[in-house]
From TrEMBL:
Parts of the chain that traverse the membrane: 146-167
InterPro entries: ExbB/TolQ_transport, MotA_ExbB_proton_chnl
GO cellular component assignments: plasma membrane
Family from the record: Belongs to the exbB/tolQ family.
Biological processes annotated in GO: protein import
Membrane topology: Multi-pass membrane protein
Keywords: Cell inner membrane, Cell membrane, Membrane, Protein transport, Transmembrane, Transmembrane helix, Transport
Species of provenance: Kozakia baliensis
Keyword Cell inner membrane: yes
Description of how the protein assembles with itself and partners: The accessory proteins ExbB and ExbD seem to form a complex with TonB.
Localization per Swiss-Prot or TrEMBL: Cell inner membrane; Membrane
Full protein name: Biopolymer transport protein ExbB
Amino acid sequence: MVIMSAGTWIIMVTKFLEQAKVFSASKEAAREFWTKPSVQEGASSLKAASPFRYIAETGIVAAEHHEGSMRDAIDLHSWTAMSIQRSVDTINTRLQGGLAFLGTVGSTSPFVGLFGTVWGIYHALTAIGIAGQASIDKVAGPVGESLIMTAIGLATAVPAVLGYNLLVRRNKGAMDRVRNFAADVQSVLLGGFRHGVAPTATTMSTPTTGTTSGRVA
């Protein structure tokens, strides 16, 4: 139970900080990436550890290497989509790490506490059987221990369940931002402007054509 409780709090704090970095990187991408004249400069403006820079660089590399016989085998849209989706899946897998442990602790720790309760009651009944009478001094100790085990099980399970639900909800918000950014990057790589934004005089150049035809922000 001590290991479960310690692991729960370590994972919750670690994942919360990791998610906070993703949200901070999202704000940085909105502030820096889309104000640059090209996707290459936009990617370079982001921090090296930023997941949004990782997505942008993955898309750029995919677009630049769509050449030769590959053009006949697969179109640019499908090629960049597969490459960017793999980077998004990698980020999602990283964010999901540790949540299974929280779910396991939240599901099993109450039963571990219940097992302790049963064990304590068993000892109480054994003491009564040996003494031949149900005196308070024979029952109080084992029953008290069993109640303590129940309380420990609940104290371990409740933070794990609450932390799991909180982190899952924050993960969903973080991944929504990641997927939206990935879709916008692919739109720029293919058409020179962001998804859902009509082309205007304000532009961002793509790595494949070097021309500009879409609004940046």
